[in-house]
């Protein structure tokens, strides 16, 4: 079979319910890479929380982080690297809106930056529960424009805060996270996972029809729509299943991605 680009979301997709890559997943993806296919991580996670999986899978392809705002090859300078940022004034504006909108935490991140205005006890370990002194977000410490700003806000205020951010800053996109947490994520306007996927395909000169992409949440929608074969996880939300070309028979907790790939590539 000629070369395919396999684009993988991490949480709820390639990672199991303990947010780990199983041995079967690792072995299958290694086999596919050795056969000449390109395996690439395309995730909403920051690079700091994706690189361990990248290393574990022994990948050499570029990785897409922050839902398309950053594409890079970990650990090396690469001419194709890009990072779309947003104006840091947005963060200062959020400081002013804290009281009015019951904002619980603000984090500003980029490829080489992680700052948060306070530690946040959270169940999904995306953010440290204690902050080092050089990780505290203030007017002084935020010296560069971030790739993504994450805002934890009480759910009752989520829609109103989103509308206020877009009113003040029309050149950004504001996405909500799936799952139990009430989170807004602010990125450069019009940037989503398909932005990174299109650049990956162009880098490898791979036709859109030869892209297979897997996802489960609303931030995967553009990526699955763009891919020649957009595959929704069995555990995906309904809108993702509705636009997908196919659905995995098994969930992420049952190695759904590699089960699908082994059948697709006739590996068993």
From TrEMBL:
GO molecular function: magnesium ion binding; phosphatase activity
Keywords linked to the UniProt accession: Hydrolase
Positions of transmembrane segments: none
Keyword presence, Hydrolase: yes
GO cellular component: cytosol
Any one Pfam family match given in the protein's UniProt record, by short name: Hydrolase_3
PANTHER family: 5-AMINO-6-(5-PHOSPHO-D-RIBITYLAMINO)URACIL PHOSPHATASE YITU, PHOSPHOSERINE PHOSPHATASE
Protein's name according to its UniProt entry: Cof-like hydrolase family protein
Origin species: Latilactobacillus curvatus JCM 1096 = DSM 20019
Lineage: Bacteria, Bacillati, Bacillota, Bacilli, Lactobacillales
């Amino acid at each position: 079979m000629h070369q395919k680009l396999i684009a993988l979301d991490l949480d709820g997709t390639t990672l199991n319910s303990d947010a780990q890559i199983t041995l079967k997943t690792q072995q299958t993806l290694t086999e596919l890479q050795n056969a000449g296919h390109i395996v690439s991580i395309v995730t909403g996670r920051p690079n700091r929380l994706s690189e361990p999986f990248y290393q574990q899978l022994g990948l050499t392809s570029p990785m897409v982080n922050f839902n398309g705002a950053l594409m890079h090859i970990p650990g090396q300078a690469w001419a194709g690297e890009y990072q779309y940022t947003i104006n840091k004034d947005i963060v200062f504006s959020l400081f002013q809106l804290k009281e009015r909108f019951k904002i619980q935490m603000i984090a500003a991140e980029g490829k080489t930056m992680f700052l948060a205005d306070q530690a946040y006890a959270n169940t999904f370990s995306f953010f440290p529960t204690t902050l080092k002194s050089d990780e505290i977000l203030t007017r002084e410490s935020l010296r560069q424009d971030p790739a993504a700003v994450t805002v934890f806000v009480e759910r009752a205020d989520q829609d109103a805060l989103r509308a206020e951010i877009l009113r003040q800053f029309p050149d950004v996109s504001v996405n909500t996270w799936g799952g139990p947490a009430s989170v807004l994520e602010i990125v450069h306007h019009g940037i989503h996972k398909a932005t990174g996927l299109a650049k990956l395909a162009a880098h490898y000169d791979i036709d859109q029809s030869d892209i297979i992409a897997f996802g489960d949440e609303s931030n995967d929608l553009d990526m699955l729509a763009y891919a020649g074969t957009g595959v929704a996880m069995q555990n995906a939300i309904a809108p993702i299943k509705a636009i997908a070309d196919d659905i995995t028979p098994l969930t992420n907790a049952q190695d759904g991605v590699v089960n699908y790939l082994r059948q697709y590539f006739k590996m068993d």
